[in-house]
Amino acid sequence: MLYDIPGRSGIPIARETILRLAEHPNIRAIKDAKGDFSQVSSVLSATDLIYLSGDDANTLPLLSIGASGLIGVTANIAARPYRSMIDAVNVGDLVTAAAAHRALSPLVRAVMDHIPGAVSTKYLLHKLGRISTATVRLPHVDPESVEMAAIEADLRLAREIVDLG
Which domain does 161 fall in, by range? Predict the structure, then answer.
């Protein structure tokens, strides 16, 4: 699987490179967090790569142009709405898919906008009682109180999709 995540790697994978790599028999999929929907459409038209969203906020747009699913951070916290979104897209029900997308928006903000997603996810999973500790390893650091407050404010907006206990 190719990981096209410029936010982590510093550079996007060029279309021409993806097309060349797609010819390799061991490369079957791509996790895309680039947000270049035109390129995704072009590559989907030219290859049989399985496309997966790597950017939680762009899952619905990617699904709507042919992606198969996601490898998402927020799906660790609320998998069911993503499953509903994917199922709805697969049967052509964009109204239901869009509703799931909108319902996920505050959770995506809570996890992705304030601190690194791995840190906020671990913090939230611990807060929800799903893991035993929120401690992260270096180079990550635990969230500060102001960051925790911002995360929790967004999480309260997502209470319909996340069981807050």
Answer: 78-165
pLDDT tens for each residue of 70-81? 999 999 999 999
Q: Which residues are catalytic?
A: 3, 31
Peptide bond before 139: cis, by omega within 30 degrees of 0?
Answer: yes
Q: pLDDT per residue over 111-144, tens digit each?
A: 999 999 999 999 999 988 999 999 999 999 999 9
Rounded to two decimals, the pTM is 0.89
Nearest to 31 by CA among 64, 68, 57: 68
- Structure tokens that stand for 10 in this block: 């510093």
The H-assigned helical ranges of the chain are 6-9, 15-21, 37-46, 59-64, 79-90, 94-112, 117-127, 145-157
On whether both 6 and 21 belong to a single domain, the answer is yes
Q: Which two tokens mark 143?
A: 């969230």
